[in-house]
């Protein structure tokens, strides 16, 4: 019986336990380092043994590293890029899902092909464009939140395939009924499809937000001024200056960075679960 149980079920539990340990141990180590008053690599254990908020106080009180400013910059960039990316992706997905036109299949395949290459491959061209744009419009140049956000908005159609797949599941009879009642294409999109697509919009919005808040490569190139940095660049500068003694401050900043993502997920979870369950129930 023991051998049979292990072959059928036991190995799954063992694999799940290994995966949980692999995921939880780094989180516990970061939490321990954040609340450890010494905050060094040598004094930090996986299981927290001492508790202190000194590193969080240092984040918000040290003028050499303006963490509140970095947090504000990051939230502004995430809000703008997420809104533009979800809106543009939804508009393009509506066109690809509901209309039939020449080049439709080629356009979808082109979007899929472009997503296979990271945006960092075009960093030289982007840097040159932003530099020249900054000479004409300083508000959109280097070391500006608007200029960096504009660079990230270049991937505004990253969620087209995901949203289009959801639009395809919505019956076309709803569109036809709205058109018969006098609705325009914009009316069908904003009044019919978008309310029904709240679950996929929540998912794509969360994915876009997580991708932007953790973006480091482009931010480290376009944002070098201390007051213009985002959380990813600012925290890297903290740990780079002293990888051993600044571990506690870095860990505290990492926990503060994860807080907006957790709060956003908790807020959007009701739309995801509520939309899926309501769609599965038939009156």
TrEMBL record:
<dbReference type="InterPro" id="IPR000515">
    <property type="entry name" value="MetI-like"/>
</dbReference>
<feature type="transmembrane region" description="Helical">
    <location>
        <begin position="200"/>
        <end position="223"/>
    </location>
</feature>
<dbReference type="Pfam" id="PF00528">
    <property type="entry name" value="BPD_transp_1"/>
</dbReference>
<feature type="transmembrane region" description="Helical">
    <location>
        <begin position="247"/>
        <end position="268"/>
    </location>
</feature>
<keyword id="KW-0812">Transmembrane</keyword>
<comment type="similarity">
    <text>Belongs to the binding-protein-dependent transport system permease family. MalFG subfamily.</text>
</comment>
<dbReference type="InterPro" id="IPR035906">
    <property type="entry name" value="MetI-like_sf"/>
</dbReference>
<feature type="transmembrane region" description="Helical">
    <location>
        <begin position="70"/>
        <end position="96"/>
    </location>
</feature>
<keyword id="KW-0762">Sugar transport</keyword>
<keyword id="KW-1133">Transmembrane helix</keyword>
<dbReference type="InterPro" id="IPR050901">
    <property type="entry name" value="BP-dep_ABC_trans_perm"/>
</dbReference>
<keyword id="KW-0472">Membrane</keyword>
<feature type="domain" description="ABC transmembrane type-1">
    <location>
        <begin position="71"/>
        <end position="268"/>
    </location>
</feature>
<feature type="transmembrane region" description="Helical">
    <location>
        <begin position="108"/>
        <end position="130"/>
    </location>
</feature>
<feature type="transmembrane region" description="Helical">
    <location>
        <begin position="142"/>
        <end position="163"/>
    </location>
</feature>
<protein>
    <submittedName>
        <fullName>Sugar ABC transporter permease</fullName>
    </submittedName>
</protein>
<keyword id="KW-0813">Transport</keyword>
<keyword id="KW-1003">Cell membrane</keyword>
<feature type="transmembrane region" description="Helical">
    <location>
        <begin position="14"/>
        <end position="35"/>
    </location>
</feature>
